[in-house]
Amino acid sequence: MKDKKLLFDRKCHVLYSKPCKKEIRAKIALHYPAAEREAVWEKVQRQYADFLSDWRTDLGGKRNFHNGVGGTYDCIAIMYFYDVCRDVVTFREMEEIEENLILPAFRKLRFVDINKPFWKKLMYRAFTTAKKRCDAWHDYEMAVAPYENGKPIYYEFTACPAAEFAKQFGFTDIMPALCNVDYASIYDAIGFPKEYHLHTLRHFFVSTLLHSGIDKQTVAELAGHADTGFLERTYCHPEMARKRDAATSMLTSIHPGGGMLFPLQTAVGK
Asked: Does the pLDDT value for residue 129 go beyond 90?
């Protein structure tokens, strides 16, 4: 379906960005045969448009800088992609979508050295300007600590419309995939290997608890998942690998030479 045919109020809402659409469709292509991809994408489109009819109308549309690439509406599109494809998409793939939308802008600022007074003051001004825009739209609640020489710049967000949406529509279990881009930007800036990301630590934490015998419901609650479904799809595969290894070890100890334990023809009387 063409984007222009989606029915929603474009005076107060915006369409997902073109980069976001490209990222989502690329992930769909990883998991579905070519003949099914367009239907899957159209389902994401329709759910996105349907949601907007029940969503707040005060986010400013195109006038609000938070509604651009990687912003509020892109996050919502990503959540509905997850809703449609939750049986096949992984947590890491969700992280990658948001990273690919946000990190290019961060990389353009690599020349900035915030440890130098000039850049530090300039960045502080950028943050205070961003806060004023947040206050104007009342979407993200932002606090910026007073500027002090010799101390780091500090700011925080205490409210987020994407998180508000996730709570209202049951997507809190994947919110970390959208928020972890903050850590990814730090890793990217310092040249940390891509193989090591925040989800690596999270995966270790969850897998260790499961292997220690902690029940899935408790682990899901500790990991912030609404139920065990996402946990089972994302983290339980190491358990299956361990079971296969155990079965292989047992077979080797019983039958060191390998092959079948007994001839199949003998078993069926031939």
From this structure: yes
